[in-house]
């Protein structure tokens, strides 16, 4: 049996998120240790990424706005 070719878009979402984190959050810097990385990542995602950053895939709404709109429709 020959292995199937992998889909080149399988990792596209992950690579996009990593790229966004590097450019918007790290801005060329790095973390001093794992605890610092976990703390900063959590703070970035919960206080900015989900509440302030607008996403084109969500019709230029934040994930929090999208979820609230979705919940209110149901």
Q: How many DSSP H or I helices? A: 3
Order of helices and strands: HHH
**General form:** globular
- DSSP strand count: 0
For the largest beta-sheet, the strand count, sense and barrel status come to:
none
Rg of Cα set: 16 Å
Oligomer: single chain
Overall mean pLDDT score? Answer: 85
> Which structural class should the secondary elements be placed in?
mainly alpha
* Unreliable runs: none
Strand content: under 5%
Helix fraction? Answer: 55-70%
Distance between the termini: 47 Å
Organism: Haloferula chungangensis
Protein name: Integrase core domain-containing protein
Domain Integrase catalytic: 8-63
InterPro entries: Integrase_cat-core (IPR001584), RNaseH-like_sf (IPR012337), Transposase_IS3/IS150/IS904 (IPR050900)
Textual characterization of the structure:
The chain has 74 residues and is mostly helical. The chain is built from three helices and no strands. The protein has helices at 12-26, 34-49, 63-73. The longest helix has 16 residues, at 34-49. It starts with 11 loop residues before the first helix and ends with a helix. The mean pLDDT is 85. This is Integrase core domain-containing protein. It comes from Haloferula chungangensis. InterPro entries: Integrase_cat-core, RNaseH-like_sf, Transposase_IS3/IS150/IS904. Residues 8-63 form the Integrase catalytic domain.
């Amino acid at each position: 049996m020959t292995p199937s070719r992998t889909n080149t878009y399988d990792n596209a979402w992950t690579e996009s998120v990593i790229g966004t984190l590097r450019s918007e959050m790290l801005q060329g810097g790095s973390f001093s240790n794992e605890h610092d990385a976990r703390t900063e990542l959590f703070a970035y995602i919960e206080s900015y990424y989900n509440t302030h950053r607008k996403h084109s895939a969500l019709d230029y709404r934040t994930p929090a706005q999208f979820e609230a709109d979705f919940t209110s429709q149901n």
